[in-house]
Amino acid sequence: MSTQKIFSASNPENIQKAAEILRKGGLVAFPTETVYGLGADAANSQAVCRIFEVKKRPAFDPLIIHVADPEEALSLWSEVPDAAKTLMERFWPGPLTLVLPRSEKVSDLVTSGLPTVAVRMPKHEAALGLIRALGKPIAAPSANLFGYTSPTSAAHVAEGLGAGLDFILDGGPCAVGVESTVLKIENGEGVILRPGGISAEELSTLISLKGDSALFFEKRALSPMESPGQLETHYAPWTKFILLPKSFAEFAPEFEESLKEYHSTISAPLRLGLLAFRKAPESASLESVQVLSEKGELVEAASNLFQAMRYLDKMNLDWILAEPVPASGIGLAILDRLQKASGGKIAEKGFLC
Ligand code: TXA
Ligand code: MG
Questions:
Q1: For the segment 87-99, what is each residue's pLDDT rounded down to a tens digit?
Q2: What angle do CA 303, 306, 310 make, to 5 degrees?
Q3: Residue 339 and residue 28: Cα distance in Å, rounded?
Q4: Whole-structure pTM value
Q5: CA-CA distance, 159 to 255, in Å (whole number)?
């Protein structure tokens, strides 16, 4: 792991140095309250192109622009409905990204040619300090290789992207731990494009959510996929990863049967890990267990999610099994990440074969 590019975000000199790198068209990874971002000057096309190269991200996947002041966002959009202003007042700075028609100031590279642009104001002093020191908005996706688990520490960033990066600002572990909620506003109504740090319940106290989008993810959660592969794989560890339909303890009969079936043909023992929601179960079959929240608290579980996934991914396991979490509040964002890491598949009898 490359550590020589990691600099403390609490030292104001490092913020200035990072801003200088951005000014010259370089890339800087920086902490936010959700996950670490891989930042470039949003107005510098070459620097924005480098983000896509370093992340190996397809050019059709647009970036979020980060601002340090709601006023800055207003100039990036061509129209700003009252619903957006209400949400900005209530949730900014914070983990809510708003998608609205873009202004001429925004380049096609950032939006992948879409007529809209996603903007958010992060709730993190280092991120805000960096944007202010640059004096311009920063375009930034999560600072991980495309498709892999997002980074919630500077070390995670260095492990995945170290070689392609000029500077990593270390602000410690991210407090929220899952990405921002991406919300598009159409005709005054909200459509959740990605569940995240601000829950559907919180949003619906202020605006109406279109087509039951508050319920959409709940319905999708743990229902069998209508068409396999409908969900792209994302946030995924290298190790085979599968979401369980219920807690490990409840799934035990199917699990034991699957294990027996597997061992009837192959004698080498399977190395299995579990991403548990609350309590580590007693099972001799599990080599490693990561508990997201001993007390079963969703907010704590979210903050530990990516760290725990990365930990298990390093154990050289054959499979990582993941328990579902309750489908409410930030739990919907956690379930979304687990489902995507699992490629939309849910474990059933015989899944190990
Ligand atoms: O919390 C976060 O949002 C983190 C931190 C670094 O701010 N950023 C992040 O960026 O997660 P990224 O690029 O990994 O995810 C951004 C998501 C993608 O799913 C992208 O497709 C979507 O936002 N997005 C960006 N611009 C969009 C647009 N104009 N319309 C629809 N979706 C958009
Ligand atoms: Mg990402």
A1: 999 999 999 999 9
A2: 140
A3: 30
A4: 0.95
A5: 33
Question: Residue ranges per domain, the chain?
Answer: 6-203, 240-341
Comparing C-alpha atoms, which of 103, 106, 105, 110 is closest to residue 46? Answer: 110
Phi first, then psi, for residue 190 (nearest 5°) are: -95, 140
> CATH class for domain 6-203?
alpha beta
Residue 214 pLDDT greater than 60, yes or no:
no
CA gap 148, 160 in Å, rounded:
9
pLDDT value at 233 more than 70: yes
Protein residue whose Cα sits closest to atom 12 of ligand 1: 141
Closest residue by Cα to atom 3, ligand 1, is 180
What spacing in Å lies between the alpha carbon of 146 and ligand 1's midpoint? 12
CATH topology of domain 240-341: Rossmann fold (3.40.50)
Q: How much is the pLDDT for 282? A: 85
In the chain, the largest separation of any two C-alpha atoms, in whole Å, equals 64
